[in-house]
Amino acid sequence: MINIIHRVGIKAPAQKVYEAIATIEGIAGWWTESTSGVSEIGKTVVVRFHTLEGNEIGSMNMEVTALDPGKKVQWKFTAGPEEWINTNAVFELHEEGDYTIVLFSHLGWREAVEFMAHCSMKWGIFMMSLKQLVETGKGKPSPNDIKIDNWN
Amino acid sequence: MINIIHRVGIKAPAQKVYEAIATIEGIAGWWTESTSGVSEIGKTVVVRFHTLEGNEIGSMNMEVTALDPGKKVQWKFTAGPEEWINTNAVFELHEEGDYTIVLFSHLGWREAVEFMAHCSMKWGIFMMSLKQLVETGKGKPSPNDIKIDNWN
Q: Who has the most CB within 10 Å: A14, B6, B51, B110?
């Protein structure tokens, strides 16, 4: 399997980090302001990405496949970029001292294409946005996300 | 093979990006201030990492294995963390409009361990530092690098 993996440490209890990943309001605070749907097992969450001028540049649907409070969130992508279909995003949490460690994986890429390299960088940027949201109350979700290249 | 891959776009000519990766002065501007050695094919570059108080927290030696001006730089790690020995870092450059695209790979991890997930995030942070260095003249090399977790 070809996977993206990242590790980030957030100075907050695991339950607080979990809520930022497991709820619509949380996701909207670090990934994209346009997050909707229902974050319950078997239900679908929809994330949409826009330019600062409001033009949609992409979207994904994800089925929530794991919600283990304070420990794990998992999504299976069911619509969006062709390369993402049937891949899974997993967030595993554990506490170490003052930190909650997030082990993030985006699992099951079919090929290590250039778009995967873009997504790997961009997930890193969004993990820092998640860290900022939980530690300071304010993340940098799309459309105010940090741009990394000519794709976004 | 288990690899880290990232894509970053830098608003500058490829030759300028290349110089930031292919020279000791360049590397010291985005990765770690403590960069020494000789950046020539077959020679060794040494990077050392310190805390803000000046305590060394790690170092790597890398043999320069490719230097293709404006196009490619490759390093083979010959000393440092055990997991890095004999892995390779590759920077492939090409221009797209106003951007130079850097396709970065850290190739040949033996296992997708937690330390690899940390390094993947951290390489993303350093790619943004490289982008800032080339675009603005000032990156964020160690020891003033952005910290991502309880390891660094």
A: B6
Residues of chain B contacting A120 with CB distance shorter than 8 Å: 4-7, 120, 124
CA distance A40 to chain B (A): 27
User: Which residue has tokens 């949380």?
Assistant: A26
pLDDT at A68 over 90: yes
pLDDT of residue B60: 98
How do the pLDDT tens digits run along chain B, 152 residues long? 899 999 999 999 999 999 999 999 999 999 999 999 999 999 999 999 999 999 999 999 999 999 999 999 999 999 999 999 999 999 999 999 999 999 999 999 999 999 999 999 999 999 999 999 999 999 999 999 999 999 99
Cα–Cα distances (Å) from B93 to B15, B45, B63, in that order, read 9, 21, 20
Chain A interface includes B120 (CB < 8 A): yes
CB contact under 8 A, B99 and A150: yes
Q: What are the DSSP E strand ranges found in A2-151?
A: 2-10, 34-37, 44-50, 56-68, 72-79, 88-96, 99-109
Rounded Cα–Cα distance for residues B126 and B84 (Å): 17
Can you tell me the ipTM of this complex? 0.96
Look up residue A148 and give its two tokens. Answer: 């990394």
Distance CA A13, CA A11 (A): 7
Q: Do A121 and B112 touch (CB under 8 A)?
A: no
Whether B65 and chain A come into contact, CB under 8 Å, resolves to: no
Q: Determine whether the interchain pair B148/A125 forms a contact, defined as Cβ–Cβ distance below 8 Å.
A: no
Query: B6, A104: Cβ pair inside 8 Å?
Result: no
Q: Does A140 touch chain B (CB under 8 A)?
A: no
**What is d(CA A31, CA B111) in angstroms, rounded to the nearest whole number?**
29
